[in-house]
Amino acid sequence: MGCCNSSLSQQGHSDQEAPLLNVDERHATQTLVRYTQRTQYSSSMMNNHDEVTLDQALSAVSVLCYSNELSMKRSASLFYLNLIKEEGFRATRETLKPLMNLLTCDDLEVLRPATIALGNLAATDSRNKTLIVELQGLRLLTNLLINPSSDILCNVCGCFTNLSSSDENKSRIVECGALPFLVALCSFPDVRVVRNACGTLLNLSQHRPNCQHLIRAGCLTVFITLLSSDDPDTVKYASAALSNLAVIPDYRREMLQYIHPLLTGLVHCIKGSAFALQPSLPHIQTQAALALLNLASDDIYQLRIANAGAIPYLLKILQQDTPTLTLASVALLRNLSIHPDNEAELVRGNCIPLLLGLIEKTLDQLEDHPANVTGAIRNFFDLICHCVSCLRNISTSDQNREAFLESRGVEIFRRIFLLPPRVNIPDLVLCETAAAVAILSLTGTVREELLLAHTKGPAGPSAGLETSTLFLLTEMLSSGKPDLVANCAAAIGNLAPSPTCQRQLRVLWPQVSTYFLNLLLSEKSSSLHIAIWTLSEFSSKSDIKDLITSDQRIYNKIVELSKIQPPPLASEGDDAYYEQYLLNEVYRFTTTIMENLATP
C-alpha cells in the first residue's frame, strides 16, 4: 500500500574539494566502482581478480554509511537503494544496521534514498518487517515524522504503511508514539503524504484494540474530512477505516455527533461522480457501502442513510456488472429494508424485480457452470441470502407480495429449493428462503402459486408434488437444523388456509407428522412453540383437522401440554421472559387446538 517514490538524482562534486577518506573508505569506494563496472561490462572484459560480489559491495556500502563525510553517506544511501534490487539480495541484521544508521542523518540527500529503500524492504517480506522493528526502525521513523521535506514524509509514511500491514506491528506503531504525527499529517498539503498517512491509519484500524486510540486521536473527523479528497486512494482508505470503526457499537454511537457530514460523504462516494472515469471507482464505492452497511446495524442509521439519498444509487449499482460492489450494495439494502419507513422507497425504485433478477442470474451461474464459480461460491450464496432477506423485509403488504408474484418471484424461489445436490447450498440460504416464503404465503394468490405442482415425479404417494413448495418444505423439516425447521414449519402453517395445501397435506401427512412429533418432543421451547402454532392453524381448518387426531402420538402430546399450567411471566427484559412467554403461548395454542378439535 505504501508508496515511496520521491525523485532521486546523483549529487556531483565538481565545485567542491575532494573529501578526505581514510583507508577503509578509499577501499570501499574502489570496491563499489568495480562493482558498478561489473554490471556495465561483460565478465570477459574483466580479470577474475577484479570481480566484486554482492556481499562485498554490501560490506563496502556499510563502511560508507558510517563515514564522517556527508558525500560518502549520500553515495552509500544511493548505492544501498540500488543494491537491494539486485538478485540474491537478502536482508539480515548486518545488512540492515547501516541503513538504520543513515536514518539518523538530517541530510535530505541521505534520507531520501534511505527511506525509499526501507519502504521497499518493508513491502516485500514479512521477515524484513520483523528485522526493521527489532533494529529500532519504528523509533527512527517516528523521529522523521517532523521532517519538513514532503519527499521524506511521503517515504516515511509509506514505510509505516508497509510495516503496519503486519498484525504484530499494529500495536507497536501506536506504542512508539507515531499516531498523533500520522493524524496531523492527514492535513498536510502534499497529497502523497496524506495518502500514505491515511493508509497507515487504515491498517491500524484493522486491529480492534487500536480503535480506541484512533478515536481519541481525533481520527473520526479526519476520515470524514478525507472523504471529500481529490485523491481516490485517500478516499478509499478513509472509507475503509470508517467501516472498520463502525463495526464496534460504541463507536457507531460516537459517530452520531458527526452523522450529517459522515453520511453525506459516504453517500457521495457511492454516487461516484467525483471519480467517474477512475478505474478505482468500484473500490471506493465498495468501501463506502461497507461503511454504511456497518452503520446500518443500528435502526437510527437505517432511516438516516435512506434520507441521505443512498437508495437510488444502490439500486443503480444492482444493474452493473461489479460483483464485489453489488454484494456490498445488496447487503446494505438488506439492512436498510429492516426499517419499515424505507419500504416504500425501495419498492418504488423497482427493488423487487432487481433483486429477483440478481438471484436468477446467480442461480444460472451456479446451475450451468458450478466448476467455474468454486472460488467465489461463498459470495454467490451470500448474494442470494441478502437478496432473499431484503425481499422478505419489504413483503409486508399484499401489494408488495403481488409485485413479487408478478416478477416471477415464486418460480425463482422454487429454483433455490431445487438446486442440484452438487451445488451444496448452505442451510442459511434455505433458512432465509423458508422465512421469506412464510411471509409471502400470507397473500392468497402467492400462496396458490407456491403450491403449484407440475412435475411428473416417480410413482408413489407424493408423485407429482415434487415442485410444490409444501413438498420442498416438508423435505427440509428433516434437516435437524432448528432455525431451518422452525421457518419451514411457519411457512407450512401460513400455507394451510389454502384448499390446495390441505389436499397436499393429506398426501404428505406421514412425513409431516413425523417431523412435527419430533418438534413436540423437543426440549427447546422455540421448537415446541412453532409446532403447536402450526398445528393450531391445521386445527382451524375443518378439512384437515382430523389429521391431528389420526396420529395418536401427536394428539396425546397436545392433550398433555394442554394440562400444563404455564409459569407466570417475568418482567419484560428479564432473561427468563422470552422463555416464559413462549411457554404461555404454547399453553394458549394447545387450548385453542383442543377447542377446535371438539367443534364438529
Overview of the molecule:
By secondary structure, the chain is an all-alpha fold. Among the domains are: 22-135; 451-600, Leucine-rich Repeat Variant (Alpha Horseshoe), CATH 1.25.10. It has 34 helices and no strands. The longest helix is centred in the last third of the chain and has 22 residues, at 499-520. The protein is elongated.
Computed Rg:
34 Å
Question: What structural class results from the helix and strand content?
Answer: mainly alpha
What does the largest sheet look like?
none
Total strands: 0
Q: Count the DSSP helices.
A: 34
Can you give the helix content as a percent range? 55-70%
Highest CATH level, the class of the domain at 451-600? Mainly Alpha
Annotated CATH architecture of the domain at 451-600: Alpha Horseshoe
Q: Could you give me the name of the CATH homologous superfamily of the domain at 451-600?
A: Leucine-rich Repeat Variant
Global outline? elongated
Termini separation comes to: 76 Å
Organism: Fonticula alba
GO molecular function, one term: protein-membrane adaptor activity
ARM repeats: 94-132, 136-178, 177-219, 218-246, 309-348
Keywords: Lipoprotein, Membrane, Repeat, Vacuole
